[in-house]
Write a structure and sequence with these properties.
Elements (H helix, E strand, L loop, with lengths): L1 E6 L2 E4 L4 E9 L6 E7 L6 E6 L6 E3 L7 E6 L4 E6 L8 E8 L17 E2 L3 E6 L1
Parallel strand pairs: 2-11
Antiparallel strand pairs: 1-3, 3-8, 4-5, 4-9, 5-6, 7-8, 9-10, 9-11
Length: 128
Amino acid sequence: QVQLVESGGGLVQAGGSLRLSCAASGRTFGNYAVGWFRQAPGKAREFVAGINRGGGNTYYADSVKGRFTISRDNAKNTVTLQMNSLKPDDTAVYYCAADQSTLGIIAVRRERYDYDYWGQGTQVTVSS
């Protein structure tokens, strides 16, 4: 299995930027597609962005398209979520998750149940 640890969260003003990192240990990270999800208080956990195993295919929720960028470095076992032009609605706990399915060789899946391993989350708070 793989262990995931998120970092980089914090408090930022609207319009600012944050860079989240997901560090993996355990099995070869390149064997997993990776997704970022977020959960705001009182709301369901939702998909934010994902990247396939090799990094050549990405997918974004409409709410973050054009503002967030996901990337990965399999040699360093990390996935990064660059978040720009942040809005108060982006406030949530952000989680990275790993999908071990072979579908992840090409595809980016977007449902919570598609992902097998989860980090503990990192808080992002955007003030207005």
